[in-house]
Amino acid sequence: MRHFQSSNKDFLAVCASWLQDFKEVLVASSFGAGDRDYLFCTSLADLNHFCESTAEGYRSASVAAFRTRQLGLRGIVDQAFIDLVAAQLPESPEYLVLRLTPNSKTGLLAGNACASLSEVLHELQDELGRPVAVGKNPEWDPFSTLPPEETGCICTTISEA
Asked: Counting Cβ atoms within 10 Å, is residue 38 exposed (0-12), middle (13-18) or buried (19+)?
């Protein structure tokens, strides 16, 4: 596996602090035509794996890490889970249904963005029997100059070292 370099020296340090405080950080990478990969990281080794896997496949990619717990509705999809999501999913302009079974090649997670609750429920029907995480699609701006303490998100650009 190739090593990665980050355009933001503080990225790993901030993520390490958040992992210590919150025990889990969702990271997302954006590359190509809106394609994204995700991973719930519980250690710096997870975060390094995510960044290295992203850098290996692409010349460069934007990566975001989120301080607070994301996609709080999690479970194996069955009718009871679908009913729970229908009852508890907060209002949002966009949702994310994230498959919690890692890609066998990269170890990363894939998901689908949904514009409405009905799209989420339809997506869940396609995931019956599989573990997922559902919630508001985390917003991030890779060009933001606001500090991560204010936004709850830190972004970087990574590329092959």
From this structure: buried
